[in-house]
């Protein structure tokens, strides 16, 4: 018997036998639903035999037969009624369990988000993407899909999405492009570190989405529910369907605040803050300026995360402020990193270690934040050091800068576009999907092994645009992304270690070393971060001007 739990109240399975019924009773089930019509196969007892076995075992029984491939709205409603009327937990079965899982999905659509339904069934081994359109429509068969169709559809209007839309339009102005994103505001997220350090004003990092969508690009202000990649279709919340010839997927990633127990309840108070949120970055600076003594914890979760240097950037700028205020000697600063190194590219570590020593920071490697008690100002870490038994460690704090675990958005993780870890599965050079030739991805959501930064998206957008145009014109995609990412590490107010690197940690400096040595803290790098990068972002990257971002060409193997 292959028992697959979908919820605590329901499990489904492939065909069971008469002798399995008593076992179900012992496992705690109280009701049995048969969704397989009699006579489908030689392996199945009749529903009358199963009903008799259920009565003998003390189980309630209901027969709701479903013809393969014909799950009607009425049957789904009947299944929902059965779940309400029968004592639980309930065990349902058909030939493979798929019909039972489908009935549950359609009924759950009345009260659960599509992504949660797809996630629950996928965890049980059932792919419900084929009925995602019905799930999105409240479990009912759509009668009017209201399809719209575009040459290129882009999911996500963050840095990556708007940049690639602008790059596409600059190459082919007549291209019919649509961007899907429900947000009203677009944020310059690299600026939040500077807000938390008292350098930028928060309002300087936000603009209305409508002011940034490139001229001639359609903005569909909606959330994506699911993908029908085989049909070149996207299902929006509310069951609207958008069709495409080519698709670009770049919705960013999900900050999983709830993964740290108690964190959501205390963010923005009790000394708990994070530069990873627009509304909290000003609180970081407030805490820094008010704090004259005590313990400050700066955490970093397991990789991958957005801008791997950001957790320690907050620490350096805070420590520098305390030094300038003359209170650094009264501060106990800890960098609690779930990983085992200060920075992933070794060439930049010596400069960073100098500042760790300068500020008296304690490095707590292999410390992963798992819980926060705000009122008692206590953080709990799971410590997993190599070759040692894992343990839990509590640390008191006066200030906690928390960085949450980060995952792909729910609607991506449960989609046919995702790899086993939930990220969009692409070729790391062309950024084309490995299974669907008319789909590309860039930005934080795809699985190429590069740093997830806005600087990376700036380099990726022209690659994707070039390769889509090549595909439209019948040529093989030939633009190549080399893994470039940049992390301006703000080690003190006025100086930055400008980390620029590609795949495998190879250094990728934008300037000659005599002009700017990125492995050392420099004022020129600070000037770049403070003065040049914001206008480059707003006025170049998001407008299709590819300054210092022209894509390289794929190297063709010699024959």
TrEMBL record:
GO terms for biological process: sulfide oxidation, using sulfide:quinone oxidoreductase. Pfam families: BLH_phosphatase, Pyr_redox_2. SUPFAM superfamilies: FAD/NAD(P)-binding domain. The keyword Transit peptide applies. InterPro entries: BLH_phosphatase-like (IPR005939), FAD/NAD-bd_sf (IPR036188), FAD/NAD-binding_dom (IPR023753), Prot-tyrosine_phosphatase-like (IPR029021), Sulphide_quinone_reductase (IPR015904). Residues 150-263 form the FAD/NAD(P)-binding domain. One of its GO terms (molecular function) is FAD binding. Keywords: FAD, Flavoprotein, Oxidoreductase, Quinone, Transit peptide. Residues 2-109 form the Beta-lactamase hydrolase-like protein phosphatase-like domain. The keyword Transit peptide applies. Its cofactor is FAD. NCBIfam families: TIGR01244 family sulfur transferase. This is TIGR01244 family phosphatase. It comes from Roseovarius bejariae. The lineage of its organism: Bacteria, Pseudomonadati, Pseudomonadota, Alphaproteobacteria, Rhodobacterales.
């Amino acid at each position: 018997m292959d028992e697959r739990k979908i919820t605590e109240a329901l499990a489904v399975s492939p065909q069971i036998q008469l002798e399995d019924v008593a076992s179900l009773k012992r496992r705690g089930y109280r009701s049995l639903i048969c969704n397989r019509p009699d006579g489908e196969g030689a392996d199945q007892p009749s529903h009358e035999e199963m009903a008799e076995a259920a009565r003998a075992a003390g189980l309630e029984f209901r027969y709701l037969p479903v013809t393969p491939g014909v799950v009607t709205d009425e049957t789904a409603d009947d299944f929902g009624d059965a779940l309400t009327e029968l004592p639980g937990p309930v065990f349902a079965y058909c030939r493979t369990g798929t019909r039972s899982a489908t009935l549950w999905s359609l009924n759950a659509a009345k009260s659960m988000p599509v992504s949660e339904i797809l996630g629950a069934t996928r965890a049980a081994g059932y792919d419900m993407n084929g009925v995602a359109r019905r799930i999105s429509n409240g479990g009912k068969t759509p009668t009017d899909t209201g399809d719209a169709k575009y040459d290129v559809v882009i999911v996500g209007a963050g840095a990556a999405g708007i940049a690639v839309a602008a790059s596409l339009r600059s190459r082919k102005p007549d291209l019919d492009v649509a961007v899907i994103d429900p947000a009203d505001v677009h944020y310059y997220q690299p600026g939040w570190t500077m807000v938390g350090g008292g350098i930028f004003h928060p309002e300087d990092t936000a603009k209305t989405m409508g002011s940034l969508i490139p001229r001639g690009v359609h903005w569909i202000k909606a959330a994506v529910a699911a993908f029908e990649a085989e049909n070149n279709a996207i299902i929006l919340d509310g069951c609207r369907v958008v069709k495409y010839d080519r698709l670009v997927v770049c919705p960013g990633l999900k900050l999983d605040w709830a993964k740290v127990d108690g964190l959501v309840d205390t963010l923005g108070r009790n000394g708990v803050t994070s530069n990873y949120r627009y509304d909290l970055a000003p609180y970081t600076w407030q805490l820094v300026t008010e704090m004259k003594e005590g313990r400050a914890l700066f955490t970093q979760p397991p990789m991958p995360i957005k801008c791997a240097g950001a957790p320690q950037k907050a620490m350096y700028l805070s420590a520098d402020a305390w030094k300038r205020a003359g209170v650094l000697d009264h501060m106990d600063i800890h960098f609690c990193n779930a990983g085992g190194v200060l920075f992933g590219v070794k060439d930049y570590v010596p400069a960073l270690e100098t500042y760790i020593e300068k500020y008296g920071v304690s490095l707590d490697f292999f410390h992963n934040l798992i819980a926060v008690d705000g009122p008692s100002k206590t953080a709990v870490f799971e410590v997993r050091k190599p070759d040692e038994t894992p343990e839990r460690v509590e640390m008191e704090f006066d200030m906690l800068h928390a960085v949450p675990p980060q995952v792909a958005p729910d609607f991506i993780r449960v989609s046919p576009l995702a790899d086993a870890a939930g990220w969009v599965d692409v070729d790391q050079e062309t950024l084309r999907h490995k299974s669907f030739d008319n789909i590309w991805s860039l930005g934080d959501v795809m699985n190429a092994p590069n740093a997830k930064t806005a600087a990376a998206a700036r380099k990726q957008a022209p690659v994707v645009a070039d390769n889509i145009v090549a595909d439209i014109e019948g040529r093989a995609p030939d633009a190549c992304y080399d893994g470039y990412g940049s992390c301006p590490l703000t080690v003190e107010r006025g100086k930055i270690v400008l980390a620029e690197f590609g795949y495998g940690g190879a250094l990728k400096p934008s300037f000659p070393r005599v002009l700017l040595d990125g492995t050392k803290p420099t004022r020129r790098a600070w000037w770049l971060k403070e003065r040049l990068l914001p206008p480059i972002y707003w006025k170049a990257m998001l407008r299709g001007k590819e300054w210092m971002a022209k894509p390289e060409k794929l190297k063709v193997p010699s024959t």
